[in-house]
């Protein structure tokens, strides 16, 4: 009962006029920043950090949390309407959001994204409220072998992600892993894979550079080629009644993905190594895996929109947990929030929940209120975004191109990345012509740089003995499940071949 | 429809309003665009915490008319950051928060072609000591017990720290050599991850900076055993120094701000003024005290001499490491 009383106090604090205003402004600004390709919650929080010195610390962190939430909702918008991931956390949303939009069902995709985000955020808030200290110890029990096992599991769920062509999927994963290894080796500090001795490669290949190249530029080229210059345009209509129908359909066809994303996203978010981007990609993989019709993923399945969107919201709440309880940021955005808290004189860490009860519960209360405000504001904006889609493709295509370039530049402010992005876009177009799935490459460039150092740290711990992944109580079961999942398609393939031989 | 448009405009207006830069009244050179505030480490570790703190003070006191934009480039023990800053085409708007990899990385990777003496000295904000920590559940309470424990484990005692050839590995290598210890060393990408894995008992000991370990120390999880500072630290009066244990050694991480090579004198003067104000601020002085850093103020010429001295020291330390 104690917790409920504290939470009620916290919500009352969040509903005070000043704080509520901060929430509404924060969510709106976050929504717009999240919708801009390339800019995500990290940029939003970093840009607006100074503003928070104008208000008391409580209101300040509430404001930043509201931006964080808003940006998570906003990321889906350009993913769906333009096919350019609005933020790294929304890349998985393009997989099914974009096909839906091309079928003229953009409003269904956007409504699904909004509702899934809301449910994901709410479930995560409840988990946070009830189990914060207990979950902090779960985060601590994840050492390098556990994190590596989890990454292995993520890859395993993705083997089934690119159609049913396993060899092409594996090629795509390997391609992403190689790209992810470019730059400096984290363990020895030595440079590697610096292609053509170009200094630009020393910084590594950014995930957004690949994602915007593949999904922004590659998708645009694909659409141009498919329509052969014919101005095909879908005319999505938007009415209140239509939205209500969409909401109903979203609930019916997206609940499974929402459910998976909410829990998995939160859990991955809690682990300090990961964050919302791996969380949303993994949730997409799992939702596809457990679906009865996995072949509809990538063709416009609402579950494929719901899973990553529920996951990125719930992971953002999850990644607050290690920051507040351990003082270790679970994502780049929380790293900036951490900086803000230090200047306000708060010491994040094991003592925060005891020493600063009012602050902590005010913040948790604001999560609930921000989430509710975000879903309402987002739903109100949807007609505007749909209206944008009415523009003919001849207008949209150059717009997508410009936004991709701007988004790619905004992330790193380096022209090198723009050229790389264009090359990836063209490469993606040809790979797509040959039916190579690209999502696994995008996943690999995110997870590779987490998996590789943890693999090597684990093997250092065990003096080179790989049994470390099987003998530890948490890592063991995860590794076994991952291996079964990886070899399952191979077994199926073998069996299919055998039956084919008999015929 | 009208309502949503108004919302949109309202949001934009709020966005513009809040990002509008403050007005500065100083004469002379002024930044004309946001300042690239590159950090030589990943998010969450000691260097990052300090950079964020400095940025916050600058914002709070409205010391710069354009914002400092933190830019984490921790790859390759800071090599990524050094290349980024030395290769910038806008040296007047590019500054770097450094740690000791400013000295060690160019030494270890001569092929990068980085000469740190070409960087522009701006401000030495303080030096950060190192402390040996163990988890309270280990039962170890003194440095002597620690040495005994490490020896009894025959090379299976696991310590974590930052990447190979970086600060933590130098401190641990010196200590292992001095006390004849056989330690298994696991490199991490930042001090934050190291502290977290000690808290989770994935590793057995660390040499985190006090700032990184403080939260866990105050919660009673971490036990400090030995300080690598010249004298005992006021915040940890009962912790002996390595000098008291008979070895003339101390090691600090520099927390300095430097400008890109080729920065104009006017711009350098502007940043020196800004960082002097930050150094003298109540906030920074309070931070130095609460996080156990020592102030070590130097002018530009002294900073360059200090760099030369540190390069020589690190050459010897790395040679001893076999690097």
From TrEMBL, chain A:
InterPro entries: DUF112_TM. The keyword Transmembrane applies. The chain crosses the membrane at residues 20-39, 46-69, 75-95, 107-135, 147-163, 170-188, 200-218, 324-347, 359-386, 393-410, 416-431, 475-494. Keywords: Membrane, Transmembrane, Transmembrane helix. Residues 20-443 form the DUF112 domain. Pfam families: TctA. This is Tripartite tricarboxylate transporter permease. It comes from Roseobacter sinensis.
Automatic annotation (TrEMBL), chain B:
InterPro entries: BUG (IPR005064), Bug_dom1 (IPR042100). CDD domains: PBP2_Bug_TTT. Transmembrane segments: none annotated. It holds the Pfam family TctC. It comes from the Bacteria. Residues 1-26 form the signal peptide. Keywords: Signal. The keyword Signal applies. The keyword Disulfide bond does not apply. Belongs to the UPF0065 (bug) family. This is Tripartite tricarboxylate transporter substrate binding protein. The lineage of its organism: Bacteria, Pseudomonadati, Pseudomonadota, Alphaproteobacteria, Rhodobacterales.
């Amino acid at each position: 009962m104690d917790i409920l009383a504290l939470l009620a106090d916290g919500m009352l604090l969040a509903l005070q006029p000043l704080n509520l205003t901060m929430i509404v402004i924060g969510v709106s600004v976050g929504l717009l920043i999240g919708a801009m390709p390339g800019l995500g919650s990290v940029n939003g929080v970093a840009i607006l950090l100074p503003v928070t010195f104008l208000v008391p610390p409580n209101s300040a962190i509430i404001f930043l949390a509201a931006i964080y939430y808003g940006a998570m909702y906003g990321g889906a918008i350009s993913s769906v309407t333009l096919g350019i991931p609005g933020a790294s956390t929304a890349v998985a949303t393009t997989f099914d959001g974009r096909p839906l939009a091309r079928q003229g069902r953009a409003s269904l995709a956007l409504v699904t994204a909004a509702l899934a985000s809301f449910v994901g955020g709410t479930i995560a808030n409840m988990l946070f409220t009830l189990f914060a200290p207990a979950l902090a110890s779960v985060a601590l029990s994840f050492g390098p072998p556990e994190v590596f096992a989890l990454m292995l599991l993520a890859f395993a769920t993705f083997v089934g992600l690119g159609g049913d062509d396993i060899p092409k999927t594996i090629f795509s994963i390997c391609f992403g892993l190689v790209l992810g290894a470019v730059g400096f080796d984290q363990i020895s500090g030595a440079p590697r894979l610096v292609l053509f001795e170009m200094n630009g490669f020393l910084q590594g290949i950014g995930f957004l550079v690949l994602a915007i190249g593949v999904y922004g530029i590659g998708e645009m080229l694909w659409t141009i080629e498919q329509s052969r210059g014919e101005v095909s345009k879908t005319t999505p209509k938007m009415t209140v009644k239509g939205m209500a129908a969409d909401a109903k359909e979203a609930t019916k066809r997206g609940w499974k993905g929402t459910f998976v994303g909410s829990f998995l996203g939160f859990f991955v978010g809690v682990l300090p190594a990961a964050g919302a981007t791996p969380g949303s990609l993994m949730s997409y993989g799992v939702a596809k895996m457990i679906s009865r019709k996995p072949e509809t993923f990538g063709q416009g399945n609402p579950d494929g929109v719901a899973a990553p969107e529920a996951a990125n919201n719930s992971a953002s709440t999850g990644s607050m947990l290690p920051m507040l309880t351990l003082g270790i940021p679970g994502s780049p955005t929380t790293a900036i929030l951490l900086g803000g808290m230090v200047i306000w004189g708060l010491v994040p860490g094991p003592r925060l929940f005891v020493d600063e009860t009012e602050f902590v519960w005010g913040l948790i209360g604001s999560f609930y209120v921000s989430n509710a405000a975000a879903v309402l504001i987002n739903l109100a904006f949807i007609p505007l975004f749909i209206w944008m889609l009415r523009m003919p493709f001849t207008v949209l295509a150059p717009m997508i191109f410009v936004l991709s370039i701007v988004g790619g530049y905004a992330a790193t402010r380096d022209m090198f990345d723009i050229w790389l992005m264009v090359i990836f876009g063209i490469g993606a177009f040809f790979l797509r012509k040959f039916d190579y799935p690209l999502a696994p490459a995008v996943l690999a460039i995110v997870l590779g740089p987490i998996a590789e150092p943890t693999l090597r740290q684990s093997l250092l711990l065990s003096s080179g003995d790989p049994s470390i992944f099987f003998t530890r109580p948490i890592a063991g079961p995860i590794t076994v499940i991952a291996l079964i999942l990886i070899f399952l398609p191979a077994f199926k393939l073998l069996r299919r071949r055998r039956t084919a031989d008999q015929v | 429809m009208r309502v949503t448009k108004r919302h949109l405009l309202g949001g934009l207006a709020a966005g513009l309003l809040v990002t509008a830069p403050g007005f500065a009244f100083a004469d002379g050179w002024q930044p004309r665009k946001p300042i690239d505030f590159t950090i030589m480490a990943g998010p969450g570790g000691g260097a990052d915490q300090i950079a964020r703190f400095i940025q916050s003070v600058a914002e709070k006191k409205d010391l710069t008319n354009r914002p400092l934009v933190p830019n984490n480039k921790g790859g390759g023990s800071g090599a990524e950051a050094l290349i980024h800053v030395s290769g910038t085409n806008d040296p007047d708007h590019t500054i770097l928060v450094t740690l000791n990899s400013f000295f060690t990385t160019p030494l270890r990777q001569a092929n990068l072609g980085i000469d740190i003496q070409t960087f522009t000295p701006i401000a030495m904000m303080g030096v950060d000591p190192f402390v040996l920590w163990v988890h309270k559940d280990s039962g170890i309470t003194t440095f002597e017990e620690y040495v005994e424990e490490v020896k009894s484990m025959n090379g299976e005692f696991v310590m974590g720290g930052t990447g190979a050839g970086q600060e933590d590995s130098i401190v641990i290598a010196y200590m292992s050599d001095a006390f004849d210890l056989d330690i298994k060393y696991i490199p991490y990408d930042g001090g934050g991850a190291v502290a977290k894995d000690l808290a989770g008992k994935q590793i057995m000991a660390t040499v985190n900076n006090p700032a990184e370990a403080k939260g866990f120390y105050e919660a009673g999880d971490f036990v400090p055993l030995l300080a690598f500072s010249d004298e005992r630290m006021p915040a940890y009066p009962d912790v002996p120094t390595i000098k008291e244990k008979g070895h003339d050694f101390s090691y600090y991480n520099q927390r300095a701000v430097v400008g890109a090579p080729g920065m104009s004198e006017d711009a350098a003067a502007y940043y020196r003024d800004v960082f002097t104000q930050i150094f003298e601020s109540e906030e920074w002085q309070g931070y130095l005290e609460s996080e156990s850093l020592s102030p070590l103020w130097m002018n530009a010429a002294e900073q360059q001499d200090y760099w030369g001295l540190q390069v020589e020291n690190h050459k010897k330390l790395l040679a001893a490491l076999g690097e």
